[in-house]
Amino acid sequence: MKRIDGLEARSRKSGVSSSICHGVRPFARDYPATPGPRLLLCYTKGCMLSLAAIRKSYDSAPVLHDISFAVDAGETVALLGPSGCGKTTLLRIVAGLERADSGSVRFAGEPIDTVPAHQRGFGMMFQEYALFPHLNVADNIAYGLQTHTMSPADRNARVNEMLALVGLSTYRTRRVYQLSGGERQRVALARTLAPAPRLLMLDEPLAALDRSLRKRLQDELVPILQRVGVTTLYVTHDQEEAFALADRVALLNAGELIQYACPEEVYRRPVSAWVARFQGLKNVLDGELQEVGTVQTAIGWCITIVQEHRAQNADHRAQGVS
């Protein structure tokens, strides 16, 4: 085991990364172990990224209000919310492309608010992939390695690893115009991962693709992130995408952090009617709490709230009935 940039580089087991809720990623598919070598960095367990009371305004109009949350090492967190909620602004603050008006950002326990973006060691993939049209696939991926002190042989080996990771080993010499939208997305991801970033940031990378291709690439992205094991922030406005990819979801609206929990927690226990409706849940009934466990609804129904452990036991019993 050797040290790279103060972090341990070692082999990482493939599989679903642990969530804060019961140790599972509830709505993600179960993926088999990805064949091949384990590629990037495995960070020491614990909090890797923390944001405290982040505020940001443009022309006196508040954009972010006291945003605070922490991301564990190796965890994928989705910044989810409608357009204009502040999720991309928050990502840019973490990246160092914007400065917060107040609050602090810490990475691996160290404050990074004054650290320039190019010195943070983070990787960011934008919605517009910004591939270089005059370079082939291999040269696009190798571009971010030019600032690293690597021999040509090591650089070439790293490019081959990234091509294998995203399933494009036979596309090495192709030009950008010869690639489909999904292939360009994978090349952009490989280019972002090639320098082994300490933090991976993805800003709606699938938004420009059609629904069927977006779903397929979403399924491909999960095992890639599992195999890499890098701490990830993923910006999206798509609830299904966030629930499938993330260990935890930070749900934002109008610049405020509304709920921060694992996908199952957000889905089963939304903290407000807005959270429920944002997920597409239409049957939201207003009511008044009459006594512990009983709610009188506006349409006259009296609903008894079953304790969760009793409901879970009932579910288990129901599953055994043929």
What does this protein look like?
α3 crosses α4. This protein folds into two domains: 2-121 and 197-278, P-loop containing nucleotide triphosphate hydrolases (Rossmann fold, 3-Layer(aba) Sandwich); 287-319, no CATH class. The protein has helices at residues 87-95, 137-142, 152-165, 181-193, 211-228, 239-245, 263-268, 273-278, 308-319, and strands at residues 2-4, 7-9, 47-58, 61-72, 76-80, 102-107, 110-111, 122-125, 199-203, 231-236, 248-253, 256-261, 287-291, 294-297, 302-304. 28% of the residues lie in helices and 25% in strands. It is globular and about 70 Å long. Residues 1-44 and 309-322 have low confidence and may be disordered.
Which helices and strands occur, and which strands form pairs?
Blueprint: E1 2-4, E2 7-9, E3 47-58, E4 61-72, E5 76-80, H1 87-95, E6 102-107, E7 110-111, E8 122-125, H2 137-142, H3 152-165, H4 181-193, E9 199-203, H5 211-228, E10 231-236, H6 239-245, E11 248-253, E12 256-261, H7 263-268, H8 273-278, E13 287-291, E14 294-297, E15 302-304, H9 308-319
Parallel strand pairs: 5-10, 5-11, 8-9, 9-10
Antiparallel strand pairs: 1-2, 3-4, 3-6, 6-7, 11-12, 13-14, 14-15
What's the end-to-end separation, in Å? 52 Å
The total of helices stands at 9
Strand content: 25-35%
Walk across the major sheet and give the strand order. Answer: 8-9-10-5-11-12
Q: Just give the CATH class of the largest domain.
A: Alpha Beta
* Apparent shape: globular
Question: Overall pLDDT, averaged?
Answer: 80
